[in-house]
Design a protein that fits this description.
Elements (H helix, E strand, L loop, with lengths): L1 E19 L5 E21 L4 E5 L11 H13 L4 E7 L10 H16 L6 H9 L5 H6 L2 E5 L4 E4 L7 E6 L6 H7 L10 H9 L3 H7 L1 E2 L2 H7 L1 H12 L4 E4 L6 E5 L2 H12 L4 E6 L3
Parallel strand pairs: 1-8, 3-4
Antiparallel strand pairs: 1-2, 2-4, 2-5, 5-6, 7-10, 7-11, 9-10
This protein binds 4-diphosphocytidyl-2-C-methyl-D-erythritol 2-phosphate and adenosine-5'-diphosphate.
4-diphosphocytidyl-2-C-methyl-D-erythritol 2-phosphate binds next to β1, β2 and α5.
């Protein structure tokens, strides 16, 4: 038996850090939404009981370090499954980019195997399992647009933003999420207004959504990597309506409402950044 499933990327419209917790994680409040840049996972049953991962990008680990492996492993243990699975991952989402590519692969593995093996688990149960592997996985289980709290694993669905284009630009550097959180001084940050952003989304008020974009990790990554700041400046110069770094970075996204402006922003960025994508919000 085989099953194929897409694993979409996310962006953070807001990312607030409230405090550092005693368990080493940070208490956060984030508004996240999915975009139509996706990896593809092809799952196939194996009789030999092994979990075998193969990835289109050779530098992504294909052993127990792969989040899709960990997802298959935890699901098998939870449901006492002895069958194995082959998982082929076609990567399209840039890696270590702040777009939750690995987390989305793990979420797609949990959802896909739930179907392939007819396990009948609810999304809430899959999200609870996913949270044991990584903070972003529960959001990736539900997709859409949501407010994420706790360390990011508590998910509350909210309205979808109005349709718009999203330009993603990633400089050729990878960022470690743990490193960026470690460098953050929580006493010195400017906070986004999360409830105002939720209101702007509910009112489908595109201008206020753009004005409210804010990420407390952005200044940390921008200080370390000035090229990220340059991409932000260029995106605004070429006419994006609102611009922000996603997650811990280094990918910068620009929201563009008018299709007529899309090409200008896309081509402008392509001039000095090789990894540029023009996608739609899925939220
Ligand atoms: C920053 C965000 C924003 O969406 O995304 P990315 O930049 O990774 O895409 C997330 O909070 C990332 O979530 P995720 O990538 O699942 O992180 P985890 O594996 O749970 O944690 C990796 C490390 O980041 C730090 N961490 C993570 C989440 C959190 N709320 N506080 C933290 O301090 C911890 O040091 C942890 O050991
Ligand atoms: N399926 C996967 N796809 C991409 N990266 C993965 C995967 N599984 C594990 N990783 C590892 O997870 C780390 C973060 O990857 P990724 O999820 O792309 O970044 P981010 O959390 O910034 O969105 C990388 O070091 C990568 O080697």
């Amino acid at each position: 038996m085989k099953y194929s499933i897409k694993a979409p990327a996310k962006i953070n419209l807001t990312l607030d850090t409230l405090k550092k917790r005693s368990d080493g994680y940070h208490e956060v409040e984030m508004i996240m939404t999915t975009v139509d840049l996706a990896d593809r996972l092809d799952l196939a049953d194996r009789e030999d009981g092994k979990i075998v991962i193969d990835v289109s990008e050779g530098f992504v680990p294909n052993d127990h370090r792969n989040l899709a492996y960990q997802a298959a492993d935890i699901l098998r243990k939870h449901c006492n499954i002895t069958r194995g699975v082959s998982i082929y991952i076609t990567k399209r989402i840039p890696v270590s980019a702040g777009l939750a590519g690995g987390s989305s692969d793990a979420a797609a593995t949990l959802k896909g195997l739930n179907q392939l093996w007819s396990l009948g688990l609810s999304l809430d149960e899959l999200a609870e399992l996913g949270a044991k592997i990584g903070s972003d996985i529960p959001f990736c289980i539900y997709g859409g647009t949501a407010l994420a709290t706790g360390r990011g694993e508590k998910i509350e669905k909210i309205a979808s933003p109005p349709p718009c284009w999203v330009i993603l630009a990633k400089p050729p550097i990878g960022v470690s999420t743990a490193d960026i959180y470690n460098r953050l001084n929580v006493d010195e940050i400017l906070h986004p207004n999360t409830s105002e952003m939720i209101r702007a989304i509910e009112n489908q008020d595109f201008q206020s959504i753009c004005a409210g974009l804010h990420n407390t990790l952005e200044s940390v990554t921008l200080d370390l990597y000035p090229e990220v700041k340059k991409i932000k400046e260029q995106m605004l110069k070429f006419g994006a309506d609102g611009v922000l770094m996603s997650g811990s970075g280094p990918t910068v996204f620009g929201l563009v409402q008018k299709e007529s402006r899309l090409n200008r922003v896309y081509n402008g960025l392509k001039g000095f950044c090789s990894d540029v994508y023009a996608v739609r919000l899925l939220g």
